[in-house]
Amino acid sequence: TTATISTSTAASRALFDRARAVTPGGVNSPVRAFNAVGGTPRFITSASGAWLTDADGNDYVDLICSWGPMLLGHAHPEVQAQVMAAVARGTSYGTPTQPEVELAEEIVARTPVERVRFVSSGTEATMSAIRLARGATGRDLVVKFAGCYHGHVDPLLAEAGSGVATLAVPGTSGVPASSAAETLVLPYNDRDAVRAAFAAHGPRIACLITEATPGNMGVVPPEPGFNAFLAETCRTHGALFISDEVMTGFRATAQGGWGLDGAVEGWVPDLMTFGKVMGGGFPAAAFGGRSDLMAHLAPEGPVYQAGTLSGNPVATTAGLATLRLATPEVYAHLDATATTIRDAVAEHLGAAGVPHTVQTAGTMFSVFFTGGPVRDFATASRTDTRAYAAFFHAMLDQGVYLPPSAYEAWFVSAAHDDRAVSTIIDALPAAAAAAATA
Ligand code: PMP
Question: Among its keywords, does the record have DNA repair (predicted)?
């Protein structure tokens, strides 16, 4: 018999009732809701290392890690100390500060971008990168892939992944038809579709944006050479290649998703976007690229972009501390931990006869409840969401907090130690059995 760790949820349920009265769906970001799996989201009151504690006092091994940022685990003592010291110096000045310069230098050192501009969310980063691409090229059209999520930017919501996929939200609700008409949505990993789009619209395409290695329809790696092909196609047609590394940056590898292919094959995106890990759990994100392109931004150039809290000293201090502590040993630990969890999940789902496909991109991975391979949004959408919901709740009841969606990556941290991993592995037989009978 397996220990049931999640004994009571009365306090979370009471908070959720209050939340729904004052906030749509009771959550401030749709992916946090349990709409796709049923039940009550846990209200977390504290977190430490690999563990979350909810309002009822239940502990969970965290496989969400704030949807990516918590690379080092929660409440890392060194990050915390530097953040506390930054807070004591005042929280926002509206002037340039040293931590911004140092975080920018760190990002420039780790990635192929030459200059960066800080913003407060991944959405702002992709929105601003697209404006910059349009300003620099004098063109309007944007190409994206179905199942990729780039934040809730009007022209990028079309056929998007993450919460848009989970809730099957019509991608264009509230988005002007004129904005949607400027977006071409293509199937991922489909070179013919890319060739056809550029043949038909090449001179009007400002940019193609893609996740460096998609994680928002589950993890769907680019087929070998696909990103290089995209970079080359953009170059040929005078369009800009934007690699969105909000999720993968400083996470998939030390050099992000680019570390898996671009760094090896020798190509560089024109623009990149970052978020999550580089904010160390605070609202911070960035976009960057070649110096000549970034020179189009105000105050150097005519493309306007700004933000009251951009480069906030507390957020950039947290991000800088996180990146400086993200050593090769950290990435090796993430790799090993992810491999152990993936293998155990595959073993138990296999033994229970549950169709599944485990896919990886560096230290990121996800589990599709369908036979594979999964190469695009159409194949990802075959996932058995009922089986996933049963699996999810069985894991939650045994103290493991998975993403409440079958279309999300699972995230581990440097703090996921043997105790956390064995809690996950011990929960798998019952969860696989639940999925098999869903
Ligand atoms: N791009 C990607 C690849 C993402 O994964 C996300 C968030 N999950 C975003 C952009 C948007 O970032 P934010 O939620 O900070 O606006």
Answer: no
Q: Any catalytic annotation for residue 149?
A: yes
Residue with tokens 């990050």: 79
Residue tagged 């980063």 (tokens): 125
CATH of 77-325, one of 3.40.50.150, 3.40.640.10, 3.50.50.60, 2.60.40.10: 3.40.640.10
Which tens digit of pLDDT belongs to each residue from 177-234? 888 889 999 999 999 999 999 999 999 999 999 999 999 999 999 999 999 999 999 9
Q: What is the CA radius of gyration of the chain?
A: 21
Exposure string (b/e) for 238-268, b if CB count within 10 Å is 16 or more? ebbbbbbbbbbbbbbbbbbbbbbbbbeeebb
Given the CA of residue 121, which atom of ligand 1 is nearest to it?
15
Catalytic residue (one of 149, 188, 331, 401): 149
pTM more than 0.95? yes
Q: How far away, in angstroms, is 265 Cα from ligand 1 center?
A: 26
Query: 275 alpha carbon to ligand 1 midpoint, in Å?
Result: 7
| Per-residue pLDDT tens over the stretch 122-157 | 999 999 999 999 999 999 999 999 999 999 999 898
* Protein residues whose CB sits closer than 6 Å to any atom of ligand 1: 67, 121-123, 126, 149-151, 162, 211, 216, 244, 246-247, 275, 285
From the candidate CATH numbers 3.90.1150.10, 3.20.20.140, 3.30.750.24, 1.25.40.10, the one assigned to the domain spanning 10-63+328-436 = 3.90.1150.10
End-to-end Cα separation, the chain, in angstroms: 20
Ligand 1 center to 229 CA (angstroms): 24
Whether residue 409 is predicted with pLDDT greater than 90 in this model: the reply is yes
The Cα 414–Cα 67 span in angstroms is: 15
13-55 pLDDT, tens digit per residue, is 999 999 999 999 999 999 999 999 999 999 999 999 999 999 9
